[in-house]
Amino acid sequence: MPFAQLVLGPPGSGKSTYCDGMHQFMGAIGRKCSVVNLDPANDQTSYPCALDVRDLITLDEIMKDEELGPNGGVLYALEELEHNFDWLEQGLGQLKEDYILFDCPGQVELFTHHSSLRNIFFRLQKLGYRVCSHHCPQLFNNIDSYTLTLPSLYISTLLLSLRAMLQMDLPHLNVLTKLDKLSQYSPLPFNLDYYTEVQDLSYLLPHLADESPALQNAKFEGLNKAIVELVEDFGLVGFETLAVENKKSMMTLLQAIDRAGGYAFGGAEGANDTVWQVAMREGMTTMDIRDVQERWLDAKDEWDELEHSQRKKEADAEDAQTTRWESDEDDILDGNTMAGRGTNDSGVKIIRKS
Question: Quick one: which of 23, 27, 77, 243 could link to 179 by a disulfide (CB 3.0–4.6 Å)?
Fold first, then answer.
């Protein structure tokens, strides 16, 4: 049974970067993974693209032939893909049991109220795919961590994530990306767990009013209170965190995705498994939200220096090992050369008579 992630999110939230990083990470832990590009406007992918919707239809063709703008062109392209689902099914069939990452367009209409993307992945489920989405079929919704710095952006993100979860109707994870950049922004009024666990949002309302004089109007106060109560009444939205260049962060997120999508490790445990394969299988490495807070906010510089020092020690150890191997090879070659010279000597001494 093949597994897949549907990677969603607004433009600039890091969807393609995530697909590239997760593709590399899965390769490192021994999972066969392929990336499928479903964005007709994405003409420069940083990852090896196993299947590309641009081979079916391109945004430039749509805009020229149908006289549509960029947003309308992307919606049209997804409708065209839905109508030509056989093309997608045939392409995925060639990937066999690979773990699939679907890199989706950034138009929020596609995962808030437009039906084509949802219909495509419902049909994939009927083919046997276990899909999960991020805001990825696993639904994975990427959200730039910058949204935490402004209460209005955070509440808007909660509404967008909730709507995507209800619309897509798939196992769903919301992920705060670019966490390594968060320390560069203004300090947060609450700890990170307040935002990831979506705790009592009423505490955020005074900060929302302070954000702009326009939001201090009584009408806005009532609207804001109604919005946060709506989010809390559903009780569905929560966030994972991700710094895509950090292996521990990637591992923690992938473990959460595996739980959400029902991924099960297959095959016998091998004696030659890498440390990352063993750690993933045994669940040895996790990051509590308090660890994330310390790593990326409270003591980021100290952790950066420590990890840099560890990487330098690992590189020095690899260089030393390589040098020892080269020295051993030279000794073996020298020994073989001397042995070869010895075999050319028969050991018989010739004494000439005078």
Answer: 243
pTM of the model: 0.80
Helix (H, G, I), strand (E, B) or coil at 30: coil
**Two tokens at 8?**
């969603």
Q: What angle do CA 254, 172, 11 make, to 5 degrees?
A: 85
Rounded to 5°, the CA angle 17-291-278 comes to: 70
Residue pLDDT, tens place only, 290-308? 899 998 898 888 998 998 8
Look-up of token digits 């004696």: 271
| Contacts for 118-124: CB closer than 8 Å, 24+ residues apart | 118/167, 118/168, 118/169, 119/82, 120/78, 120/81, 120/82, 120/85, 120/88, 121/6, 121/168, 121/170, 123/85, 124/4, 124/92
Segment 321-327 mean pLDDT: 79
